[in-house]
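Continuing the batch. This is chain 6 of the set; chains 1 through 5 are on the previous pages. Same settings as before, nothing changed between runs. Recording input and output for traceability.
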Amino acid sequence: MTAVEKTLVMYGEGVREAARRMLPKLPDERFVPIEGERLREVVKEGIVQIIMVARMEEQAAFLGGASGLLESITLDMDCGTAMAGKVAEAPAVRDVYDLWEHAGKLGPCGRELCRRTAGELERRAADMAGAPDVQVAAQVVLLDAKGESMVGMYGRMAR
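Output for chain 6:
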């Protein structure tokens, strides 16, 4: 299996073209929507690199939902309890994006969201392989609210 065949790009709703622009050398078959069954298949095939390209909504959903998650990130990134309270009361993930952006905290908070998503991708890949020592490197790219431009990123490269 070549390095290209060992890479999978998972993309969120409506952002396939943005993902393709970011990784133009990968063939079309290496791009799939975010969903668990395809991840399970490629882990068993020996995948070594997973790249997720998604908005905040998909990342929050992947991590089990926004409830508490985005507030925790806000606190962990030293945005203060007042901002965390606004985040906790936000009616939608998109509103949290706007809060972070207007406060000048989208960069650090977005990277932390990507870090947590990458860690969960790696954990799930190891679980699906049935071996905690399986080394699948995950990179996560956070896109802007329109799903067009990268606003944050975190991850490891495959060895």
